[in-house]
Automatic annotation (TrEMBL):
One of its GO terms (molecular function) is hydrolase activity. Coiled coil: none annotated. SUPFAM superfamilies: Phosphoglycerate mutase-like. Its EC number is 3.1.3.-. This is Histidine phosphatase family protein.
């Protein structure tokens, strides 16, 4: 059994009828389907606890969609949601816009498209990994302090920071094709650690896979 596990959960589907890249904009709450996804994850973690999991710590990004996604898990496990700015969505120049070929062709955007490997349109992938892994290590430590060896923590975050962190954890290049991210709505990217805090494994699950059919695929960043 791993000494500790930290589950990075992506938020549920967002109400976004205009299809914009919502990024860090306020007021983007879950859709009806998104609330169902969040409820499903609450049920999932309750079942895990009943099966013996020591889930002792719950963290969420300050953005509304992450807080709403965390709420059913908090209720199911009797935990408080602890907000951590380090797991917030990535900064993005195109926030609030519909990102399509016509928009990208506007000259005002060209300076932000010069280096997709960083990427130049927003927060560097490496910077995202640094802040998220700092939050993960703190969550790991807090979970163990509260529950002892084998304790688990849940962090509700966003697709790009989670995916960048997974790429780094698996020793892969951070530059990637956004269309190929394996990080669906309310998916779990779980990081396991030994008693020295060293990463020992990465697993991926989709407890709400059946609710993904027809769900929005517009990323936040």
């Amino acid at each position: 059994m791993p000494h500790a596990t930290v589950h990075l959960m992506r938020h549920g589907e967002v109400h976004n009828p205009d299809g914009v890249l919502y990024g860090r904009l306020p007021g983007f709450h879950l859709s009806e389907r998104g609330y169902k996804m969040a409820d499903r994850l609450g049920e999932y973690f309750a079942a895990q606890r009943d099966a013996g999991a020591l889930i002792t710590h719950l963290v969420a990004s300050p953005l509304l969609r992450a807080q709403e996604t965390a709420a059913p898990t908090a209720t199911a496990l009797g935990l408080q949601i602890e907000t951590d700015e380090r797991v917030i969505e990535a900064e993005n120049h195109f926030e609030g816009l519909k990102v399509n070929p016509r928009e990208l062709a506007r000259p005002r955007h060209w300076p932000y498209l010069v280096n997709p490997l960083r990427p130049s349109w927003g927060e560097a992938y490496a910077q995202q990994v640094e802040r998220v892994m700092a939050a993960v290590q703190q969550a790991r430590q807090t979970a163990v302090e509260r529950g002892g060896p084998g304790a688990e923590a849940v962090i509700v975050s966003h697709q790009l920071p989670i995916w960048s962190t997974r790429l780094a954890a698996e020793g892969r290049r951070l530059a990637h094709d956004p269309r190929k991210r394996e990080c669906t709505l309310t998916s779990l990217t779980s990081l396991t650690f030994d008693d020295g805090g060293r990463l020992t494994g990465v697993t991926y699950r989709e407890p709400a896979a059946d609710l993904l059919v027809g769900a929005s695929t517009t990323p936040g960043a």
